[in-house]
Design brief:
- The chain is an alpha/beta fold.
- It is 44% helix and 19% strand.
- The chain is built from six helices and eleven strands.
- It has a four-stranded parallel beta sheet with strand order 2-1-3-4. Strands 7-8-9 form a three-stranded antiparallel beta sheet. It has a two-stranded antiparallel sheet with strand order 5-6.
- It is globular, with a radius of gyration of 27 Å.
- The N and C termini lie far apart (73 Å).
- 15% of the residues are buried.
């Protein structure tokens, strides 16, 4: 289910959208979902997409200003208005998570200039999200991807063909984030279903790759553990519980010997 904070979903076939025009509507819809899931004792769907999250943030700002009877967040003393926006958004997402929904975010892109303390400044495309909402939308996110449309000339027809390209990693022009190794730099497709299939295939391959890499690291670590120059085999490595028991037995033995020495 998509919480649509913009009116741009009419042309997308098969999508389920809850059209939201104000933050009061968003809160009312959340209350409806809470009541519905309690009554049915099950989730009507698994994932909720907030799209676009920047527009949702603008609605929260309007809601906070109206609540505090001010024209702008800066009119609220001590910068509390910005914290109110952050807390309201975080609470909303946490409520959805607590019900059992996965929450994903879609944002427009914007060109930002990064000014590092040392070195030259540079431009990068990044999600258009209010600063106070960045931690929730980007810090806690596993994936930050950038979807673009590229046009390439078909060698047979000589005509330009538009394709969707989902950038995943290794592109300095975009702010990207992936949690595992082994993913391709980008996925290119024309039909949405094909893009979903490619992404899932790439994800599962990357998981297998990462798991194999972790297994190799563990094997190499175990092979480097030696006792009197004898390599310890994997099956001989003690678990934490066994080690703790041996340490406790050794401590008891040392304590008993000390008591004997002192005439105890």
């Amino acid at each position: 289910m998509t919480f649509g904070f913009e009116d741009r979903f009419k042309g997308i076939e098969g999508i389920r959208v809850a059209r939201i025009d104000s933050w009061d509507e968003a809160k009312a819809y959340l209350n409806q979902i809470k009541a519905g899931t309690r009554k049915a004792n099950k989730l009507p769907f698994n994932t909720i997409i907030i799209d676009p999250v920047g527009r949702a943030g603008a609605m929260i700002e309007q809601w906070v200003c109206k609540k505090c009877a001010v024209d702008a967040l800066s009119d609220i003393e001590w910068g509390q208005g910005y914290s109110m926006v952050e807390n309201e958004f975080n609470s909303y997402v946490d409520d959805l998570n607590s019900i059992g929904f996965n929450v994903n975010f879609v944002a427009h892109g914007k060109l930002a200039t990064i000014k590092p303390p040392h070195g030259k400044e540079y431009d990068i495309f990044q999600p258009d999200v209010p600063k106070k909402m960045i931690y929730k939308t980007q810090g806690e996110a596993d994936f930050i991807c950038y979807l673009d449309v590229v046009r390439e000339v078909d060698e047979e027809t000589g005509k330009a063909v538009a394709k969707r390209r989902l950038y995943l990693q290794n592109y300095a022009d975009f702010q990207l984030k992936v949690p595992i190794k082994g993913l391709p730099d980008y996925i290119e497709y024309t039909e949405v279903e094909d893009g979903v299939t490619q992404f899932l295939e790439a994800f599962h391959k990357a998981v297998d790759f990462s798991q194999g890499e972790n297994d190799n690291k563990q094997d190499n670590f175990i092979a480097n553990i030696t006792d009197n120059d004898d390599v310890v085999k994997k099956e001989e490595v003690e678990d934490d519980a066994t080690k703790l028991t041996k340490l406790q037995d050794r401590a008891a033995e040392v304590r008993e010997n000390n008591l004997k020495k002192n005439g105890g």
